[in-house]
Amino acid sequence: MSIMAFKCGVSYVEGLIILVTAFMLAVGHANTIVIGGAENWHFGFNYTNWAFQNSPLYLNDTLVFKYDPPNGTTFPHSVYLLRDFRSFLRCDLRRAKRVASVTQGGGDGFKFVMKRWQPYYFACGERAGFHCNVGMMKFAVMPLPRCHIW
C-alpha cells in the first residue's frame, strides 16, 4: 500500500487518513428505521409485510422499536430475538433472547443496530407468543452490505 501511495504522490500517513475518512463516511451512511413506520410496534399490524415492503435494510442500520409502556389502556410489548427460522415460524420463544423490555419502547424507543451479516428474527414476546402468533408482531431481516461507488 505504501508503494502505491508514493506513486500517487500521497504519503503513507495521508493515505491512511484518506482510508479512515472513507471508512467513517461509509459507516455514516447507516439509516435509522422506525419499525412499522407511523404504526410503530403494536398488536395487529403485519410486520412481516412491512419488512418486505421496506427492504432492503443494511448492515449498521438502526432499527427503532417504539411502543407505549404498559398502562391501563395498552397491552405491554417487548422485543425478542428468535434463534432461528424455525423458531420464527412457530413463534417459539423458549430459546429467544429478550433485547427490550416492556418499558424500553417509550420515548425515543428501543434502538437495535444490525452489526452482523446474519438473519435477524424479531418478535414480541408478550402473552407467551400470542402477540407474535395472532398479533403478527414478528418479522425477519437479512441486512445487506452497503456498497459504495466512489
Structure description:
With 150 residues, the protein is α+β, with helices and mostly antiparallel strands. The protein has a single domain (31-141), classed as Immunoglobulin-like (Sandwich), CATH 2.60.40.420. It is built from 5 helices and 7 strands, in the order ααβαββαβββαβ. The chain has a 4-stranded antiparallel beta sheet with strand order 4-3-6-7. The longest helix is centred in the N-terminal third of the chain and has 17 residues, at 12-28. It is globular. This is Phytocyanin domain-containing protein. InterPro entries: Cupredoxin, Phytocyanin_dom. One of its GO terms (molecular function) is electron transfer activity. Residues 31-145 form the Phytocyanin domain.
List the keywords:
four-stranded antiparallel sheet; 150 residues; 27% helix; Immunoglobulin-like; disordered N terminus; alpha+beta
Please give the CATH class. Mainly Beta
Order of helices and strands: HHEHEEHEEEHE
Say which CATH homologous superfamily is assigned: Cupredoxins -  blue copper proteins
Number of domains: 1
Radius of gyration: 20 Å
Mean pLDDT, all residues: 85
User: Architecture in CATH?
Assistant: Sandwich
DSSP strand tally = 7
Q: Mind describing the biggest β-sheet? A: 4 strands, antiparallel
Which residues sit in consecutive blocks of at least 5 with pLDDT less than 50?
A: 1-8, 12-27
Classify the helix fraction into a percent range: 25-40%
Give the strand order of the largest sheet, numbering strands 1, 2, ... along the chain.
Answer: 4-3-6-7
In the CATH hierarchy, the third-tier topology is known as Immunoglobulin-like
Distance between the termini: 18 Å
Strand-pairing-aware structural class: alpha+beta
Number of helices: 5
Q: What fraction of the residues are assigned to beta strands by DSSP?
A: 15-25%
